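In this supplementary section we document a worked example of the pipeline. Step one takes a protein sequence of length 471 as its only input; no multiple sequence alignment statistics are reported here. Step two produces a three-dimensional model, which step three serialises into structure tokens for compact storage. The input and output of this example are shown verbatim.
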Amino acid sequence: MHLLRFAAFCALFLLTAVATAEAAEKPNIIFVMADDLGYGDLGSFGQQKIATPNLDEMARQGMRMTDFYAGCTVCAPSRCVLMTGLHTGHCFIRGNAKDNLRPSDVTVAEVLKKAGYQTALIGKWGLGHEGSTGVPTRQGFDYFFGYLDQTHAHNYYPTFLMRNEERVPLKNVPLKEGPWGQGIAKEKVDYSHDLCFDEAMQWIDGAAKKDAPFFLYLSLTIPHANNEAGKAGMEVPEYGQYADKDWPEPQKGHAAMISRMDRDLGKLFAKLKADGIDDNTLVIFTSDNGPHREGGNDPDFADSNGPLQGIKRSLHEGGIRVPTIVRWPGHVKAGSQSDWAGAFWDVMPTLAAVAGVTDEVPSDIDGVSFLPTITGKGAQKEHDYLYWAFYERGGAQAVRQGDWKAIQQPINTPVRLYNLKDDLGEEHNLAADHPEKVAEMTKMMAAAYSPSDSWKFPQPKPKKNNAKGKN
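The serialised model returned by step three reads:
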């Protein structure tokens, strides 16, 4: 009997040891997403006026992905694409509204939980409201702290944030407050970005002590504007190194927000080293769409979209191509660069490949894994094309195939055609010179788009019949 008990104990010990070893082999994953950060807002992507030394160092230690795209040109659909692996021709939430993810929607967090990951979202969600099926804790996240509603997230000094499914009151006193918590504070005490970042650091500390890898989706609100504050919408506690600049006040605020975020990313990397997990942690940094012209901000002042045309709400490159950096010591070559064309719908299959659970990825997603690109191991699958749909301001759609880019914005206008290799700024419409390519890419857009009951393109207005009737 004693021998049987001893044998059973040994078997249990071996199983536990194997499970612990397997967990240790899987890297931690941190996905950091800024809000409305332009392609040209980082030093490593050409920025000259705003200091981002820590993110620039991240680029030196990892890979710059120069041709990586957001899921859409505005908040909620871009985040839906990121979480579900479906582009805006297929995903459920295709625009900024009050929609909630459904129980049937499979998220990145749910996939990684199948691999034994601890999961947390800290910051801005935008895909589910209080009491709905779309809240993060009902979509695969073990822990959540931040904003549920994207309008609430405009306010950097709100009266509350959410922890899991409960409101956490803050010390800020509102001057005006809307039904979702959006508004303006007359007494500014608790800066939400600082609270969220501190929460993330604490969560990492706890997660690092457990015998399981972790996935942290750190969804920052910087440098989005507080739209409700008008020209004073670039809310930040202090201007820091930009205080004495001879700049417009909103530009001081915009720069200070980005440098504050950069400062905190430096703290993040220091934390990973202090906790002894730096070499076993994959960090991806990006933005949810292009730069904005809100809250008094002028994206031209600091050349926020760099060499690209367009900003937020445009399907030109400046609205959807985003600065993306990948760092994973020992796996991603330091100082490397890739022009592989990918997008947010590729994140789910990539992280699933990192975690070793590719069989848990839904078969109908639009993404492919870019793990071979960042590690240099294996053959990288190419997209047939990349597609975006946008349902505001007259609707729009765009498709990229290789160096070719077709865009129809507004939707009921002729398709424009550009060659990005020769014309990154999309200044020369080649549609008249290549009608066969226009026809080919128009067919691609039609094939990529699935009708939605909630999101519809505007219909063309019927032409007026000016013919006079007979007497």
